[in-house]
Amino acid sequence: MTQASSLRRIIYLTLLCLIFFPTLFETGKYYKDLKNRDLIISSKTFLGEMELVKRHIDKYINSHDQWPKSLKQAGYLSDEHYLSFDLSNQWVMKASIKNHPVTDHRVYYKHIVLRYNPQISRWECDFNLSNLSDQYTHQLCKTTNPSSRLSAENWNVLIILGTLFIALVLYLFKHPLLEVIRKNDGLLNTTDFNQLKKMKRLAGVSRTHSGIMQVNQLSKQDWAYLHQETPKDWLRTLTQNLPIDTAAVRNHKHLTFSLSNQFELNVSAFNVYVANKTDTISRIIRKVNEPGDKYTPVLLLVADPDTQAETNAKLKQFKPPVIIPNPLQLTQLKLPGFSQKCLIKLFRKHLPLTTISPYQGKGGVIKPSHFFGRQGMLEDLVSNVNSNFFIVGGRQLGKTSLLKALMHELQNNKNHYCQYVSLSDERLLPRLKYLAKDNSVTSLRSAILSLQKQHPSQTIRLLIDEADQFIRKDAKNGYMQLNEIRQCSEEGLCQFIFAGFWELYAHAILDYHSPLRNFANSIIVAGLELDAAIRLVIGPLHLLGLRLSHERLAQKIVEKCGQRANLINLICEDLVKQVSVTKKMITPSHVDESFKCQNVQDALQGWSSLTSKPEDSQWDRVIVYLVFIHASITLKQIQKTAGKHGLKLSAEKIKQSIQRLQLAHILKKEQEHHQFAVPLFADQYSAQEAEVLLQQELANWHS
């Protein structure tokens, strides 16, 4: 709710107050009069007597055109029972109340004065001389006097009540707690957890709770339990707000949470201990240390400020890593829009950055949040269910990460049965048999038919990683299993997506007789897109609370790595190690140091044996050494070098070697020149060192 709308509400309520209170006051008086019913009867009695006298005077004036000097002259011959009348003043009738048993003693001898206006022939009340209250006086005195309805005393009471009401409204709408929330556009993330109960009460009375609930994405149930601090409530809240796989109550106050792959940091689980107001510090320390797990972080939820301060002072006595959220963070953990961000900040503040960093080693991407770029490739794989695919590229270029990203996209799709199979050897059939859980399976076709029977309404999609050994072995056996695969695909039984390197590429593209030829669409995996590579540098660093001293550093890292995701990951992992303790800004000197780290140097190796054929690998090395020497090289220069040393090699063999080096992202082609795809690669050897290595390679060739 905005401040302007709050002021409008105050104005409306003030006007309502000014209208409501007088009516309420009059209604109260009316019901008070009803309780004194005997007084009302007596007032009607003597007012009836007065009305009878007034009629006789009216009749006399109409007949004689003058004022009567007595009741007798006016023709009223009855005795005066309740009132005594004085007609001595011309055109004035004064009626005084007698002392009578049926009359209230509080009105004895009080009077009503009516004046007759001969010019208009009308009676009027003399308010200055009449001193009876409304419940006893004549009707003329009730309806004619505008100030008789409320006395000055009554107005004072109303003004005081109205002022109190306005003060109450201002207190509600201008309360500092609600003012802070208004300035924060209704968000509760800056509200102390211990003030939530009071804030809820204020918001309910001021009718602003619905707007606050909507802005903070809170359901009615969330709102009802917002200020609660019981273990059961925290279990429900954290399970709703965080990407949790499993959650359990270990004992009365211990909660255990397993985080899903959606959580961005490298944290798989955490425990929670909910302390209440009766818990002493020694009891909290004993209970947290009880389970004996020294590695899983514990979120210690302590609402009481004094207990929280004492617990923070004794953190060293806890065995596992303990994180104690402050009152603002306790509130943020309750809010769907802030809970995960708050947990990330708590982890990165209290846990070593090297253990929670998204940059972890040399393995493929596991978490979807760590997968950057390649969206075009991923969309093709997801949408083209009727086509087979070959994902081709060198090691550590992202083939496995792409397959796992595809698995993540399809895992909740009821129309697809998708399975990832990683081949460490040539045996594909045993793995498919295991998937089918069918002992009768004797061939690839029967395994796929079994899977189809188990999932009749789904499309079978098999993602086969590290397929090179399987293809090489099957090629030696006359393509028996590959022919089965092709047949299953043509019958529409299954979609196949193979990932591999040179053997897959050679048999799919270069081998005219291979069943893989024209079997699938090829996707070449090399470096990341430029913007994705920069996001891979900046995004996780930002998540860890780290910053680069200059934007150009991210561009420098990406360019030196040739946009290779695995190298960027290793360099950033080393940067995190360098600044994890000091948490200082990452400078160019940090980046230069990471370029030289051992993990990066190791990742640049392995290019010398890209194929199982020694002669082909030898030519790969010769070409790479030539690029070290000349920085870039053409096909003509390679042939010239071969001829100079008496080597007879066909142009087709040289082209295949260059293709292999390009697939491995060692070389890239710029017009007619071939140069290193990864500038860091060029730093491995100087031209002189490469010349020595080239001569040794050529000498080995001749021998």
Largest sheet: number of strands, sense, barrel closure: 5 strands, mixed
Radius of gyration: 47 Å
State the CATH topology of the largest domain: Rossmann fold
Q: Extract low-pLDDT stretches.
A: 36-41, 144-149
In DSSP terms (H or I, runs of 4 or more residues), the helix count works out at 30
Strand order of the largest sheet: 5-6-7-8-9
- Quick one: CATH class of the largest domain? Alpha Beta
Q: Identify the CATH architecture of the largest domain.
A: 3-Layer(aba) Sandwich
Strand fraction: 5-15%
User: Percent of residues in helical segments?
Assistant: 40-55%
Class per helix and strand makeup? alpha/beta
CATH superfamily of the largest domain: P-loop containing nucleotide triphosphate hydrolases
Report, as a whole number of angstroms, the end-to-end distance. 86 Å
Mean pLDDT: 84
Quickly count the domains. 5
Beta strand count:
17
Sum up the overall morphology in one term: elongated
Question: Helices, strands, pairings?
Answer:
Blueprint: H1 3-35, H2 37-64, E1 83-86, E2 92-97, E3 111-117, E4 122-125, H3 139-143, H4 152-173, H5 176-183, H6 196-205, H7 209-215, H8 220-224, H9 231-241, E5 244-249, E6 254-259, E7 269-274, H10 281-289, E8 298-301, H11 305-313, E9 322-323, H12 327-334, H13 339-350, H14 353-356, H15 375-383, E10 389-392, H16 399-410, E11 416-422, H17 429-436, H18 444-454, E12 459-465, H19 468-476, H20 480-490, E13 495-500, H21 502-510, E14 521-524, H22 530-543, H23 552-560, H24 565-579, H25 588-595, H26 598-603, H27 614-630, E15 632-633, H28 635-644, H29 651-663, E16 667-670, E17 673-676, H30 687-702
Parallel strand pairs: 7-8, 8-9, 10-13, 10-14, 11-12, 12-13
Antiparallel strand pairs: 1-2, 2-3, 3-4, 5-6, 6-7, 15-17, 16-17
Helix pairs in contact: 1-4, 12-13, 15-16, 17-18, 19-21, 22-23, 22-24, 24-25, 27-29, 27-30
